[in-house]
Design a protein that fits this description.
Blueprint (H helix, E strand, L loop, with lengths): L2 H43 L5 E3 L6 E3 L1
Antiparallel strand pairs: 1-2
């Protein structure tokens, strides 16, 4: 394989890896923003229940 073709293949591969990395970071950032907004909304509305220990079984249950 000529060196020019191999070099072009390496550059193309690096471009694909860079694009995939940037896309993954962007998607994770969007998901984190959505998760934080849902948590903040639930906390604002008082929907988050705390767990209390059941004295009989020792298990934690909502309540």
């Amino acid at each position: 394989m000529p060196p020019f073709v191999a070099f072009a293949g390496v550059l193309g591969g690096l471009a694909v890896v860079r694009w995939a990395y940037k896309t993954a970071v962007r998607i994770n950032q969007e998901l984190e923003e959505m998760r934080l907004s849902r948590v903040a909304e639930a906390a604002h509305m008082g929907d988050i229940q705390t767990l209390k220990r059941d004295p009989v079984t020792g298990a934690y249950r909502p309540g």
